[in-house]
Amino acid sequence: MNPWWEGLAVFGVGACIGSFLNVCILRWPLGLSIVRPASRCQACGVKIPGFLNLPILGWILLRGRARCCGAHLDWRYPVVELFTATILAALWFLYPPKLFVAYAFLAAGLIVASGIDFDHLVIPDGLTLGGVILGISASYLLPQLQERADPTDAMIRSAVSAALGGSILYLLAKTASWFLQKEAMGTGDAKLLAALGSFLGWTALPWILAVSSLFGTCVGVIMILQRKQKLGVKIPYGPYLAMAVLLWLLGGKAWIAKYLLNNLSSQIPN
User: Fold this and answer.
1) What's the chain's average pLDDT?
2) What pLDDT does residue 228 have?
3) How far apart are CA 64 and CA 112, in angstroms?
4) Spatial contact of 103 and 91, defined as CB atoms under 8 Å apart
5) Which distant-in-sequence residues (6+ apart) come within 8 Å of 22 by Cβ?
6) pLDDT at 233
7) Any residues with CB less than 8 A from the CB of 192 and at least 6 apart, and which?
8) Cα→Cα distances 189→41, 110, 195, 200, 203, Å
9) What number of CA atoms fall less than 13 Å from residue 82's CA on the CB side?
10) In the chain, fewer beta carbons within 10 Å around the N or the C end?
11) Hey, CA dihedral for 110, 115, 118, 120, is it positive or negative?
């Protein structure tokens, strides 16, 4: 197949996956099945016909209104579908198939975690602790995730990175909570960073912490200036961790490697 046709196919499949992720974001925190029942209108409960349940296109054709009752359809549905499709297509062009599959699972989990964190200020243990187990297992099966050749070595590195990531953010959260005399960050964020460490290794942790903190600070300051957020009120941190990871996968890792290589080369005498 032509590479661009492959990318287009991945984009289409990614949009369908994004539609499923919307279901996970909506139902998981409520304890509902993510498989049954089939998609229904959130306003009146009528089953949505398959030809109107098309990712992205369905929302556009309906102009953001439910056909059955005219209720407003959340704009987040097509945004999640489009975002998922775009991310997966980009990962397809950047990585070999086996790494693509691993990073696609990671990206999907981050999208679900971000959506739930936005809505409920919590990240389910099934995503975080489950992610740690999946990351360690994937590192054994695919040592390239940890830039290692030996599966056992990769698995150990994954486990150590998970422990390191979770411990760092847990200690930061406890320190901030002690300083503010209120809970500053939930333990779900620390568990999420542990899962990220299990997939990406400890070398990605400084980037993730720095970039996510920058995102969180900028958004928090803007919201405070716009009087949409009170100082000291908890805000979701999971989405900023997710954005930092996606930037790492989409070029941050290569940029850091190039930056370090250039610095080391400049320090070596001719």
Assistant:
1) 87
2) 56
3) 22
4) yes
5) 76, 77, 80, 81, 115
6) 60
7) 113, 123, 127, 128, 131, 238, 241
8) 32, 12, 10, 16, 19
9) 10
10) C
11) negative
Number of CB atoms found within 10 A of residue 34's CB: 13
pTM: 0.89
State residue 152's pLDDT score: 96
Domain boundaries, given as residue ranges, for the chain: 1-94, 95-270
- Residue 175 is encoded by which pair of tokens? 């320190």
Q: CA 132, CA 159: separation in Å to the nearest integer?
A: 8
Question: Can you tell me the distance from the alpha carbon of 118 to that of 178, in angstroms, rounded to the nearest whole number?
Answer: 24
Q: Which stretches of the chain score pLDDT less than 50? A: 264-265
Tokens of 234: 């908890």
Short-list 28, 26, 23, 87, CA closest to 55: 23
pLDDT digits 0-9 by tens, 49-91: 776 778 898 888 888 887 777 778 889 999 999 999 999 999 9
Query: What is the C-alpha to C-alpha distance for residues 60 and 257, in angstroms, rounded to an integer?
Result: 41
Structure-token pair, residue 159: 């486990």
3 state DSSP class of 21: helix
157 vs 137: CA distance, rounded Å: 12
Q: Which residues contact 68 (CB under 8 A, 6 or more apart)?
A: 41, 44, 46, 48
Query: Quick one: tokens of 178?
Result: 């002690």
Cβ–Cβ < 8 Å for 104, 91? yes
Helix (H, G, I), strand (E, B) or coil at 251: helix
